[in-house]
Design a protein that fits this description.
Its EC number is 2.4.1.186. Pfam families: Glyco_transf_8 (PF01501). Keywords: Cytoplasm, Glycogen biosynthesis, Glycoprotein, Manganese, Metal-binding, Transferase. Its cofactor is Mn(2+). By secondary structure, the chain is mainly α. It has a domain of 115 residues: Spore Coat Polysaccharide Biosynthesis Protein SpsA, Chain A. The chain is built from eight helices and seven strands. The strands form three sheets. It has a three-stranded mixed β-sheet with strand order 1-5-4. A two-stranded antiparallel ribbon has the order 2-3.
């Protein structure tokens, strides 16, 4: 599941589905949307995907193109691998086909905040339980507010606890090698510049503008993955 999905109801039944099960993409139904899919962990499949990525790349520059290339028989082999739209409903569809949402919306199990409209970009008033300002339809507002409500109920308390523990740890450490104000300012400026660059790249990805021949090339992504896995061991 993508990080921009929100589970509304229990979906344990998906574990009974076969590989590769997914929801048809709203833009091109002969392809599946990789925001949610069912697969079986397999070293052989992993190696096959890596080999295909290195040899052919991805036709859309992202994971969805690569996965659809690898599981190319998804649309024709077995209709049982086609999941219902309720497992990957996008906000765009609630607007473009509102009658269907009114008829089937109560059955939705997973919401996918596809595109540039992400809940964490919206301003939310926790005391009122509502968004401060929002340009969109009522259904979109409702789902984004549900995301925020779940975040404040289940996630925010854990973040506050971690911040409290981190603050107490920092207070308990007496660091004799504390950097000078000038070096600190330089470090902060460098970090801010890097953060801006990362944000710009992220926005480009959300709009489908990946630089997969440059900064977002397979080699660079593989290098980042190797470094992250190495640090975690």
């Amino acid at each position: 599941m993508d990080a921009d999905t929100l589970v509304m109801k229990n979906i344990d039944e998906l574990f009974e589905r076969e590989e590769l099960s997914a929801v048809p993409d709203i833009g091109w139904p002969d392809c599946f949307n990789s925001g949610l899919f069912v697969y079986r962990p397999s070293e052989q499949t992993f190696n096959g995907l890596i080999e295909m990525a290195a040899r052919d790349g991805s036709f859309d520059g992202g994971d969805q193109g690569l996965l659809n290339q690898y599981f190319s028989d998804w649309s024709t082999r077995d209709i049982g691998r086609h999941l219902s739209f309720i497992y990957n409903m996008t906000l765009v569809s609630t607007y473009s086909y509102l009658p269907a949402y009114k008829r089937f919306g109560k059955n939705v199990k997973v919401i996918h905040f596809l595109g540039a409209l992400k809940p964490w970009y919206c301003s939310y008033n926790a005391s009122l339980g509502k968004l401060n300002t929002f340009i969109g339809n009522d259904q979109q507002r409702c789902f984004i507010e549900k995301w925020w409500q779940m975040m404040f109920t289940n996630v925010h308390p854990a973040i506050e606890q971690l911040n409290l523990v981190g603050s107490m740890s920092n207070m308990a450490i007496d660091n004799p090698n504390q950097p000078s104000p000038s070096s600190t300012s330089t470090s902060e400026a460098t970090a801010a510049a890097a953060s801006t660059e990362d944000e710009n790249r992220y926005q480009a990805w959300q709009q489908g503008q990946m630089d997969y021949l440059g900064a977002d090339s397979f080699d660079n992504i593989q290098k980042h993955l190797d470094e992250s896995i190495g640090h975690g061991q």
